[in-house]
Amino acid sequence: DTGVSQNPRHKITKRGQNVTFRCDPISEHNRLYWYRQTLGQGPEFLTYFQNEAQLEKSRLLSDRFSAERPKGSFSTLEIQRTEQGDSAMYLCASSPSGGRDGYTFGSGTRLTVV
Amino acid sequence: GEDVEQSLFLSVREGDSSVINCTYTDSSSTYLYWYKQEPGAGLQLLTYIFSNMDMKQDQRLTVLLNKKDKHLSLRIADTQTGDSAIYFCAASETSYDKVIFGPGTSLSVIP
Asked: Which residues, listed in sequence order, are joined to residue A45 by a DSSP beta bridge?
């Protein structure tokens, strides 16, 4: 297993466009988390899944954001009508059930909205 | 909700010990973590401690927890230039709950 994989690594998009990011977690991990990190800040929680069920969404996740994990494996995060304030690093992490050893993070997708 | 605070910068000389401090607000936080982020890299879990522990040692790393004051610290012994990174304190209520991160402490090690 190569760890948590995120694609693309970088995305530049024009304001108003839609973007979609993909996360492939560690295969035996049934929990998957999305975070957003802006420069000089710690990661901010966005949402998480157990298998295919989305269990919690942050208030940060406006109605322009949607996340899915259709078969309990990979997940996608879509941002519609992007705004400059959406520019950030989007991090995905996974953990097994009862994962007391913390998360395994991917390297992130850096989004720049111009 | 949980709020995690850290000092933003720390500078130490190579070979000295580094101590990074953190405070959290939610007494129901049971799992407390330290993550490391190097430039251009993802977050790496360094160590964690359960709230029923006072101390945990792992090679050069020592974590101290004062549950009464909701204060967590990470001590790095014999700090090396390769330890230069941002260190995040984080907390969660359960092992599978969302983890709340602090703003990170940027550690600079002077050769």
From this structure: A35
Residue written as token pair 């204060």: B71
Q: Which of A40, A97, A101 sits opposite B45 (nearest CB)?
A: A101
Q: A95: which chain B residues are within 8 Å (Cβ-Cβ)?
A: 96
Task: For residue A50, list chain B residues with Cβ-Cβ distance below 8 A.
Answer: 96
CA distances (Å), origin A62, targets A53, A73, A104, B7? 19, 24, 25, 30
Question: How wide is the angle at C-alpha A33 spanned by C-alphas A29 and A36, nearest 5°?
Answer: 150
Which residues of chain B have a CB within 8 Å of the CB of A93?
43
| Size (chain B), residues | 111
Residue A38, token pair as written in the block: 């802006």
pLDDT in tens, A64-104: 999 999 988 999 999 999 999 999 999 999 988 765 667 89
CA atoms within 13 A on the CB side of A10: 3
B residues 38-57 near A, CB within 8 Å?
41-45, 48
A107 φ, ψ (degrees, to nearest 5): -80, -10
The 8-class DSSP code of residue B57 comes to: E
Q: What is the rounded CA–CA span in Å between residue B98 and residue B89? A: 14
Q: Using CB atoms, which residue from A33, A44, A105 is nearest to B42?
A: A105
Whole-number percent of chain A with pLDDT over 90? 77
